[in-house]
Amino acid sequence: MKQPCRFWAQGNCRKGNQCIYLHNASSAPSSVPSFRPSTSSSRRSLTSNATKSGSNPNAWRGFVKEDSHPFQHGGQVQLFVDSLSAFLNDCPGSGAEELILRLGDVKGTGLTRLTEVLLFPAVTATVASSYSVVFQKATVLFMKVLTERAITQSTLREYTDTIYGTVLANAEAFFIANVLTNVKSPLLQISALASDVKFDEVLLYSTRLAYEVLTRNKRAAFDTALGKFVDEMRPIVTNWVTTNSDKPIAAVIEREFDRIDKIVRDGQRSLLTGAALEAAIQREAERASVSRTRRSGYQIWQLKEYDPPGELSAAGPRHDNDHQSVSDIAVVPTMDEILAERAPFLPARDLEAPHPLPHGAARYCDTQFRLLREDMVAPLREGLKNLLSTLTSPRGSHALRDGRFTSRNSDAGNLNVYPNVRVEKVKTDKRYGVSLDVSFDSNVYGKKFGNAKGRVEFWRGSKRLMYGALVCILMKNEDTIARNRFGYDLVLGIVVGRDMEALAHAETRSVIGLKIIESQFFESLLLSLTKSHDVQAQQSYLVEAPGVFFEAYRPILETLKTSVPQSLPFLPYLAPENGTLTTNIGIPLYARSNTFRWDLSALLRPGLLGANFRPGSQASRDSALRMLHSGSSLDRGQCSALLDCLSREVALVQGPPGTGKTYLGIQLVRLLLSPSHKAQSMPILCICETNHALDQFLEHLLKEGTKIVRIGKRSKSELVQPFQIEEVCKNADGLRSVKWSLAQKFEEREKLETEVARLTGQLHWQWLGWHEVKDLLAANSYHQFKAFEVARRQLHSSRHGDDSEFQVAGKKNRERDVIRRWTKCEDLEAIAEQHAARVAYQEQQQLQNPFTILDPSQESSNGLAQSAPRIPPIPTSDRPLNALQREASVWEMSRSERHRLHDHWREQVRRTVADRLNDVSKELQELTRRINDLHDEARRAVLRGIEVIGVTTNGAAKYTNLLRAVGPKIVICEEAGEVLEAHVLASLTPSTEHLILIGDPLQLRPSIATYDLSMDSPIGKSYKLDQSLLERLGLPDQNGLSLPMSQLNIQRRMRPGIADLVRVPLYPSLKDGDNTEEYPDVDGLSANVFFFRHENPEDGASNPFANTSHSNDFEARMVVELVKYLIRNGYKGSDIAILTPYLGQLLVLRDHLRKSFTVVLDERDAEDVALALGEDHADQDGSEVAGQAGPRNVVTALRKSLQEQVTLRTVDNFQGEESKIVILSLVRNRSSASAGASEGNIGFVKSPNRTNVALSRAQHGLYVLGNADLMESKSEMWRKVVGILRERDQVGTGFPIRCQRHKTGNEVQTPEEFKLVSPDGGCLRPCKFRLKSCAHQW
Fold it and tell me: Rounded CA gap, 968 and 946, in Å?
């Protein structure tokens, strides 16, 4: 009897009918896995059964070999699927990438096998034969394999997207004919389910597979088969969930099916066309009109006509980048967009504001994207418009002073402008494909620094033209006048090369690398390489908006643009479909089991055990609160907030100044990573807005022994730097299959880079040959092609004796080229020689016999006869190009005509080369993306055992694929009040089940570039871009609804007299820690808190920063003398912090202070000064600035005197820090007549958030300088603050200084009076003891 053929069972028997073994159903595996009902303790029954049945985890490799055969029966399909499942079960992480690479390779047979499984008809077990695919055994297991985290969360997007794209291509056959048919089958529901498979597994895996397909392909939401599948599954799922609501899996299935249901419905809604679309637009307009008449407090959207985006607008799109869907909007603006006359569509965040989308996830993401992008684009757009208007006006170029353009329009950003731009060469960039080296005039900086070393130091410390910056080249183009009134092309680009030597090598020229965004301009700039430098540089400028860093926006915008809105977690809170906030917060999904308990013992003192907390139980919470309060280092408010965080899937914690927000975050992480909970919690994702805040938080975790990895390269902490992911990956073992794929990609990149070099060389061709023009002529001028082809063959025949083809190479062969001979007019030169020879002969004959010319019958001795063939005339015509293109007689063209036609061909060839370079650039970018995906797969292997991943919000968006692959369940956001909502949104992944926001919505809001989008702006109240998610959810909305927000209520920073200034207006329940009662009084002053009231005006025309900031020289001098006085009374410079809201005042203070002290500037302030006021003001005397020379330090020491260091900061950059004594210079006062400013304006000092920060930094003493009457008249918060101080008699026109020895007091009203009444820190009376500060004997 024949034995079964094991190769045929695997689908790769090469013998076919000649095989001596048996080819029938008995060859199939005799045992197949049976599905058992899953228990609450395990959801891996399918995989475990496949493994127990003896499935070979390596058998799938045989099915995907190049010479394998198609599946011929169900047994082979079963074996293949069993093997895939067993393989993933045996190596869930380390080997999954091999399976993905082989199944998703478009050149391999893996996709063919997947397609066969999708198309193979499946039947229920009760009617299956040995040739059939059993739905319960193969199909459900196949769906589970494709929804394993090892595949769905892989960073190998190129391959996984191909796999799920294959499922989409066969959606009708698989989801409808196989899955839906079997799900609706009574045989499956009645008989098979009782013994073989749980119905919840069928629902769960089919839903998850549909979700992966829907979220990876934009067109999937419009697919009719998937739409039908979701529609018909909806009642089935609803019925099952209702019947089994007591099962934990029911909530999971309901949530996940709801996601795909909403994705499909959003897709169907976006397909509205014609009358349905017009009706939807009309409804929104009518609703907006009703809202206008109903509301009394009008917002900006209520004062404008509703003009929807893109094709929805009655007037049509505003420009070429105005689209209905944000997924179609390019992140980088276009020239057409920048010069557009109509205002962009900016959706207001008001619930009643009109929008083309209904309330819900899609509208939420749309609004966040459009507002954040406007914040990036507006300063550049408005600045460029103003610059162009100036340049096209008389004496316009004189407005550019020292390479800087300051707009008169306050809404427009200042610009850095570099003239005389020209393209130098083409290069390849690993990230951006093909880039251009561009040079520009930099003689302003070259002359200033004199030598190359000085220029290098300048550029190294400068924030100009940073890597990733968005820039614009203005090129004068007369042809452009037809398109815009300015006559300039606007070429947008990104800085991709910033080599110090190239920037500083020449005194008058600098070079940077640019990636040009729009292909039309990329090609024109490539072609400009062939032009002279003078032609290139004529009326051209390189422009950047220094206040907007493109790379800070790009990752967030790209993530918002490409994300599937319905895949976001927490949508009932973030974007409720009915527009009404859901205030009942659920327990985190991973903690919803009835048996789940939090073990709190990790936070208790040694020996205290048995503290468990059941989320959702009030009795359990009360007990846990008592235990934590008595047995841990947390105060009662922190204990309560911690329990709230553990029991709410979206947890909000407000921490007023000094209440220990960071400490709470550290203790929370300790608990989440305790042995009882580490497996379900790790890795935890910790996000912060700034690198500084992230480093501080991670340093605390490292001290607790936490295993961390920091994603990103900008850590300045020596403690954290070794844990940056690139450093960790250096010491990690690579993945073999990934290394093999990387080698292939690197080889592909090398080939493309070689092609770039070849094409770049072709751009510089001056003279073309037959090889370069033959295809061009064959396509466009066939008659000329034939003429040259005939001549070429004749030429070759005369030289080689036949018509054979040969390769043209080398100088000699180039000289024989028919096109080169034609271009050089060798035939015309031969004719000219013949003419010259005949003339010479005739002249010679005439000299020998004057009468020869009269006898035409005579023949000369050298054979020349009068009857010889006629010599053709030399062409002298000068026809236009269009006539030459139609001319077939190419050999009858004159020299000038040939050159004219050749130059035209050369231009066409160059355009073809430029077009190909553009294509190669895109291929290189795509290849780089794939290489990054492979690197991310290696990074994912490293992150698998990490407890905490730290990343800035920008980094989270930049590494979104990696974070999705890791799939952290828990996200903790520190300083959440300073984080833009869009940044938090971009940090969330579909795996996120628990979001914890810790911060203070009453302190500083997130920083944005466009004032008109901020909540401090009357217009911006409609947009609220700088409203953090913590503030939006935690404070009442327009309906009075908010999520519950825990509040820390014991502050340990400020003495009570200082805390009152923020307690009364903002935090009525804030209490003082016991330590604050023990603070000593401030030495040398009779008041620990004092408001020095004065009416000295702000600096006017003499202020060099009048257009961009504010300063008050009187206040600055008063501050300096007060600092000197405090130091003479025994304080160290490090005990004192000088704060001011304005950069202009910061610089005035710095200039006065450093005559006597070492002034410590924060690097962030130095950067802000450079961006807002220019590098000239960042450090006027050339002192070292952080980040400019030497190592990048956290602070800058401007060295004048090393006796004392004094901290000088802007208020915005001192949040989160503290000092024993704070001196606050408010600056604003009634302006001097020369200033020409409006009377009584206090600017953004009016902001309660900024005031809160300014007043809450001091521990022992707070001293404020400003116009108290003006402040309290212009701000409600300042009215309360000044009122408190007046009641305590702490407002006056003179500082109440006090001699420590004699207890005598004085009031000092001017800077000069300090020296008069207290020259050494005391008084004028003799002391008869040696003073500590100066050692004088009195």
Answer: 11
Q: In sequence order, what are the beta bridge partners of 1265? A: 1092, 1225
Give rounded-to-5 percent helix, strand, coil for the chain: 50, 10, 40
Cα–Cα distances (Å) from 392 to 383, 544, 636, 755, in that order, read 14, 19, 67, 41
Q: Could you count the other beta carbons within 10 Å of the beta carbon of residue 583?
A: 12
Q: Cis peptide leading into 683, omega within 30 of 0?
A: yes
Residue 1137, helix vs strand vs coil:
strand
pLDDT at 532: 58
Sign of CA dihedral 389, 392, 393, 397: positive
Assigned token pair, 244: 């089994």
Q: What single-letter amino acid sits at 1333?
A: S
What are the backbone angles phi and psi of residue 123, rounded to the nearest 5°?
-130, 165
Collect all residues with Cβ–Cβ distance below 8 Å to 1301 and sequence separation of at least 6.
1322, 1323, 1325, 1327, 1329
Phi-psi region of 1040 (alpha: psi -120 to 50; beta: other; left: phi over 0): left
Two tokens at 1227? 């600056």
Rounded CA gap, 872 and 88, in Å? 83
Half-sphere exposure of 1306 (CA within 13 A, CB side): 20
Give the max Cα distance, the chain.
141
Residue appearing with tokens 């300073």: 978
Environment class of 534 (CB within 10 Å of its CB; exposed 0-12, middle 13-18, buried 19+): exposed
Q: Which two tokens stand for residue 964?
A: 């999705």
For Cα atoms 746, 748, 750, give the angle at the middle one, nearest 5 degrees: 70
Tell me the CA distances in angstroms from 1209 to 697, 989, 1217, 1224, one per residue in order: 22, 37, 11, 10
Residue 503 near residue 565 (C-beta atoms within 8 A): no
Distance CA 1114, CA 1099 (A): 9
Residue pLDDT, tens place only, 229-268: 999 999 999 988 888 888 888 888 888 898 888 888 877 7
Residue 1088 CB partners (closer than 8 Å, separation 6+): 1055, 1057, 1058, 1081, 1082, 1260, 1261, 1262
Structure tokens at 306: 């509703």
Structure tokens at 1101: 């025309």
Residue 47 has pLDDT above 50, yes or no: no
At residue 1310, the 3 state secondary structure works out as coil
| Confidence band, pLDDT 50/70/90 cuts, at residue 1239 | low
Give the Cα separation of 199 and 190 in Å (integer): 10
Q: At what angle do helices 618-631 and 636-647 cross, to 10 degrees?
A: 140
User: Does residue 862 carry a pLDDT above 50?
Assistant: no
28-42, 279-293, 725-739: least confidently modelled range = 28-42
Q: Taking Cα atoms as reference points, which of 200, 206, 197, 186 lies closest to residue 33?
A: 197
Q: Round to whole Å and give the CA distance between 758 and 927.
A: 19
Q: b or e along 461-479 (b: 16 or more beta carbons within 10 Å of the residue's beta carbon)? A: bbbbbeeebbbbbbbebee
The Cα 972–Cα 957 span in angstroms is 15
In angstroms, how far is the first alpha carbon of the chain from the final one? 122
* Token duo for residue 1166: 């130095």
Q: What percent of the chain has pLDDT over 70?
A: 80
Q: Using alpha carbons only, what angle is made at residue 88 by residues 82 and 90, rounded to the nearest 5 degrees? A: 100
* Cα angle 702, 687, 359; round to 5: 160
pLDDT (tens digit per residue) in 1172-1182? 555 555 554 43
Give the three-class secondary structure for 1197: strand
Residues 6 or more apart whose Cβ sits within 8 Å of residue 361 = 262, 266, 565, 566, 568, 571, 574, 575
C-alpha–C-alpha distance, residues 608 and 132, integer Å? 61
Cβ distance 110 to 171 under 8 Å? no
Query: What tokens appear for 973 in the block?
Result: 């956001």
Tell me how far CA of residue 281 lies from CA of 106, 284, 285, 286, in angstroms. Answer: 43, 5, 6, 9
Interatomic CA distance for residues 702 and 669, integer angstroms: 12
